[in-house]
DUF4440 domain-containing protein (Mycolicibacterium diernhoferi), 119 residues
Amino acid sequence: MEEELLEAERAGWDSLCDSTGSEFYGRIMLADAVMVLANGMVMDRDTVVDALSQSPPWRSYQISDVRCIRIDADNAVLVYTGTGYRDGPEPAFTGTMSSVYHRRDGQWRLALYQQTELG
């Protein structure tokens, strides 16, 4: 389960690096899913898709300290430290990330994503 969820999480980061995040998250997020960002903003799926279509890409990322909390066969939480790097002088963004996944029709779907900035 952890490897499957980590694969989904990496696919999300990859989409943020190649500017396809709006399409990726439009597909993987449940209709009523939300993202809670480090600045306290809560975004529903449509808002996420719109925001990502206008966001600059990330250059690269790192995922470390991964933990998977299995709730049952179709629900789990992936918690990790994520670091994202953009081009330019701004510092890297490092945070603790939590992604709650629900398996529907054999596919992992994102129900909730939350980030807390570190440092």
Observations:
- The chain has a mean pLDDT of 96.
